[in-house]
Write a structure and sequence with these properties.
Immunoglobulin-like, 4-stranded antiparallel beta sheet, elongated
Length: 119
Amino acid sequence: TRLISTSSAQIGSPCPTAVPSVHADRHFLPPSISLSPEECVEIGTNVTIQCWNKDYGATFLLHKDGCSAPIQRQHLHVVGTATFTIFGVTPADSGTYRCSYRPWAYPFVSSPLGNNVTL
């Protein structure tokens, strides 16, 4: 996805480098991820990132590359899709996003980071 600027806004300073959870358990498959819209995004519009797995009710975590902590989280008590919305995107929102999850039955472990989408 390309971010189209209609102004001369500047990109904010990046977060510290993201690192995978020290408790990532490779027995859990990484989640899937999608971005909408998939093409160009104008400054000020909303973007939706969806993450899912097919086996576990979980807390889903949305990570942005360059940030050490998840930027959003969502709790799903059943298997399903977590929907994260970035409202009124700005150039500071451009970057690479990934998801992980913490299964409800195993709250002290996390899945590995999944594939990425780029805004």
